[in-house]
Amino acid sequence: MGIVKNSFKRKLLNPFKGDGWIWGCFGALAAISLISVYSSIGYSAIAEMGTTPDKAFGRHVLFVFASLIGIILLSNMDYRKFSKASWFGYVISIVLLVLVLVLGGDNAAGSGKSRWLYIPLIGRFQPSELAKVVIIVYLARLLAQEKDNLKEWATFRNIVLAVIFLLVFIIPDNLSTVIIIFLVCFTMMGIAPVDGRYWRRTFFGIIALALLAIFVGNQMKIPFLARSETWTNRIDNWLHFNPDELTQESMARMAVASGKFMGVGIGSTVQARLMTQANNDLIYAIIIEESGMAGGIIVFLIYAFLYFRCIRIACRCKGPFGRMTVAGLGTLIFLQAAIHMGVSVGALPVTGQTLPFISSGGSAYLCMGLALGIIQAVAQDVKENELLEGKNASSQPFNHHKNLSNNESNN
């Protein structure tokens, strides 16, 4: 009993488990988030949310704080428990995605179904955000369980089918999320590694099928692919950009152009006063407008360093489940950030992806917090095992010892 009490006291005195540099990155991004959202949320709160800017910002602060609490709680858990939970999360994600397809109302653009569910006491929730994290952890579980059979076609086929089955429920209204999950999952399979022949053939095969589905959906007006016209229009608008047309994309580019190198000053944004997506889908453009390319580069470097720390933790983790989980979730965060930044500066077509830990949005922020909490749980386990190995090496330098990370249960 005394040992349990002492352990509980240690957790209370030092709740921030895991990698200290990752905590620093999260703190920096959260601070940037509060400043940027406060500066840009005004018009969006009135036009899109139907509330006052102060209430909308207060809601964002609550989600940032809730994410912080969630990361702390998750980082203090044994990460091996997430392996068991991933199967349950996989099933729940599919149920929620089906509910979106069945119950979701028409979206603001009038095409397809809404991406949201209204949950009592919680409000709007976007199941695809949860699915991003869940499928990566679940895939890490499958890859760890089948680590000795990854060169076999049957094993690879079953793993791919599990991923595709979930993606089918996301693609009708959220192609960009499907692309991100697809890229992250196939990156994980390449690292695992699966047989290169299966990987390459399946990769290009799925891309060909996706392009065919978009073309057929656009030509034949298939309800399941109702947003295919929106996808093609976004690509066409990007390829044939018209600077004289007042759109979210053109205003974002004007924000980037007016920011120059040092920016117009924090709180002095002009474009955010006219944009409905300034505080979420295109917030990086507002960051550059206010802090210039200097501020934009700093934000990019924070994400790059966060990704570097994740890869470093993955390389140090001895267990396959922990290693693949951190590599996958770290890639998810960095890839989504890179896509958002590319869209904001006009390098990519509009996707609707938020900037992790900066953009406002409850479910997106909370689910990214879930990803970071799992990463920190693995980082803490790596740290504890390395300390234990150091002690064993100093006390018994000639004896071999067993690393605890190899005992990943149920992988």
Overall description:
It is built from 14 helices and two strands, in the order H-H-H-H-H-E-E-H-H-H-H-H-H-H-H-H. It has 411 residues and is mainly α. The protein has one domain. Strands 1-2 form a two-stranded antiparallel sheet. A hairpin with a 3-residue loop joins strand 1 and strand 2. The longest helix is centred in the C-terminal third of the chain and has 34 residues. The radius of gyration is 22 Å and the shape is globular. About 4% of the residues have low confidence.
Keywords:
single chain, 411 residues, mainly alpha, two-stranded antiparallel sheet, 14 helices, globular
List the helices and strands and how they pair.
Blueprint (H helix, E strand, L loop, with lengths): L1 H12 L6 H21 L1 H8 L3 H23 L5 H23 L13 E3 L3 E3 L1 H19 L7 H16 L6 H17 L4 H25 L7 H12 L8 H12 L23 H34 L3 H25 L17 H34 L16
Antiparallel strand pairs: 1-2
Helix pairs in contact: 2-4, 2-12, 3-4, 4-14, 5-6, 6-7, 6-8, 6-13, 6-14, 8-13, 9-10, 11-12, 12-13, 12-14, 13-14
Overview in brief:
The chain has one domain (19-379).
- Please give the largest β-sheet: 2 strands, antiparallel
Total domain count: 1
Helix fraction? 55-70%
Question: How many β-strand runs?
Answer: 2
Which strand order do you get reading across the main beta sheet? Answer: 1-2
Principal-axes geometry comes out as globular
Instruction: List the uncertain runs.
Output: 106-113, 400-406
